[in-house]
Amino acid sequence: MRIGRIILIAVPVVLALAVAGAFAAGLRLVPLEVRSFDTQAALADAMHFEAEIFRDEWGVPRVLGATDGDAAFALAYAHAEDDFPTIQYALRAALGPEMLAADESEARGAYLVQALGVTDLVAAEYETQLTLDTRALLSGYAAGLNYYAALHPDERVRDLFPVTGRDVAALAAFYFPLFYGMSDVLTDLFAPDVERDGARGQELQVHFIAPGEQHELGSNAIAVAPSRSDDGATRVVINSHQPVEGPVAWYETHMMSDEGLNFAGGTFPGVPVLHLGANPGMAHAATINRPDLIDVYELTLSDNGRTYLLDGEYVPLERSTARMLVHVWGPFAFQVTRPIERSVHGTVLRTERGVFAIRHATQGDLRGVEQTYRLMRAQTLAEYEEVMEMLAMGNTNRVVGDSAGRIARYYNARMPLRLDEPGLDWRGILPGDRSDLVWSEFAPFSALPHMVDPAAGYVVDANHTPFRVTLGDEDPREGDFPRTFGIETHMTNRGLVATTALAALETISRDELLAIKWDHSFHEDSQAMQLRDELLGMDWSDEPLMADALAIIEAWDGRADFDNRNAALSLLTYQPVGTARAAGRAGPPLDEAFRDAVVYLAEHHGRLDPLWREVNFIRRGDVAVPLQGGPDTLRAVYGQRNGDGTLSMVAGDGLVMLAEWDADGEFSLWAVHHFGSSNRPGDPHYTSQMQDFADEVMRRVPMSIEAVRESAVEAYRPGERG
């Protein structure tokens, strides 16, 4: 099926699940049931953990534990200090039948967790699939949240605590299929006509961007080997694009333990592992790829609706019941029940279009969080590759480099082994009456289009096809891989600019590498420039204002720099059309988008060619800083209109890092965050990095325990901060 993105569970995925009257069935008023939180038990449990939190001048928490579980305990506590509301919101989504929904929309989210089998999976497999040390990590993280909740009762929600390691595992298991497009598939099934933004690139985590807004998302990652760098260094650019706010905005942190863990990078609220970053031996970046990992089957039901046709016989549907609680008032809630049905394929959904079953790559697998944890500990390329062979994360490209100068671009996917039959469209709706179309095995990791230690001396990914990396003979060939894998073949603007620039350099210096990362131009073959040419082909001679506007479009050089006077009109026209077309949707007609951009700028600026610095901003609270860059540039900035003639960044570059080992093997790590370490208004670090982010300046990250202690402006045990 077509890969999509996570959209706000309340809208429109929840709307997609809302068959008329479905939640009216089984509705009854019941006494309010919530988890019983023993604060004294949480306080006592916290005494078993040995951990410290260090905060540098930027407020970034660097946590040290006697064990990895202790470090997770401290991470949870430190993150709760900075953003407890978002952590709670994220984790509540994983509670399923135990979540006290605030409204009907949240109840449907609770239904989705149960319908996709997450609740049953965690109940049955938590202790079987996850190793003891992974469970210790999850439990330590949960204990840290419980400790903070016990000390701050006015901040906690009443249905979540005590958090358990199982809850944390459930959130991860719930997220992984959403990362590779489950949300969009559900919406396409239930509400195909719902208008949504055409997100592209990092098509996972637009968890809190409402439909109708136009954003692309993406990621950039580059690794350069000593053989290609001008100074014998190994460098890795880590630049995953996310929303700037919400449960999938990057949070910078650093986990250390006496057991050898030492990893600095980015994580999300409610998650005890870091998805990207570096340790002194290994750095890795993550970008989203879009292989075909979800299949939808149309079922033929019997007259009674309880059996379905399979290989010429009617087979019973497996049935169970989901429970949702919606708070009404005081001690009362509505209990809503809804049937869950499953076939041999997976979860069954009844829609106005028909009855469908969904099968996805990570159903039945909890180990994605464990694989991510293992990757944090890998010190060499060989160790990293061994962990990647778990194939438990579902998808995401990985661009890596290690202290020995080895680099790689891994196309990671838990790729189903499917029947390759002429005329069978695995991206379409499949017949549900054939058991030979129900796959159960996966291609080994080695069967995917990777590039390890290429002679070119570099690898790059910007959410583009893995078949165009160095633009040379070393690139994987599309024909060598089965069509049933559904591997993407398109090029993003970021991919075009990066591959062209890197291939043109005989050697790659540090400054040249960073110039590519911060590049804010559009390639002549990019969709943006193609739309520009399409617009220039239109006749506006009968409308003088539009003819003047067209002259501005014609003069645009394809750049989004501060003092560009042609970028605003060009990019305000491009973004709504380009994002929709890139996602395979119609979007607004180009001429309408052009006219709308003209009106917007004329109304608010009194001219059609304001400087880009007068339009494009990152904002938080009362701080507004102009930005270079734009949609699908390597300096990625996806803006939302404010209604005053300006844009505010809502997604794109967030946590940007550069890992490097010089010719002598000395390691250094550099970073900048789009806002700062705290999501609490009024905190000094709520906006403390915004100017550096706008100036495209990174700071040195202390990596050894000694350097962390030396750079700390605060050092305390969880619960002891003044």
TrEMBL record:
Pfam families: Penicil_amidase
Database matches in Gene3D superfamilies: 1.10.1400.10, 2.30.120.10, Glutamine Phosphoribosylpyrophosphate, subunit 1, domain 1, Penicillin Amidohydrolase, domain 1
InterPro entries: Ntn_hydrolases_N (IPR029055), Pen/GL7ACA/AHL_acylase (IPR014395), Penicillin_amidase_A-knob (IPR043147), Penicillin_amidase_dom1 (IPR023343), Penicillin_amidase_N_B-knob (IPR043146), S45 (IPR002692)
Coiled coil segments of this chain: none
Record-linked SUPFAM superfamilies: N-terminal nucleophile aminohydrolases (Ntn hydrolases)
Keyword match Hydrolase: yes
Keyword Iron-sulfur: no
Ranges that cross the membrane: none
Assigned keywords, A-Z: Hydrolase, Signal, Zymogen
Family: Belongs to the peptidase S45 family.
Protein name: Penicillin acylase family protein
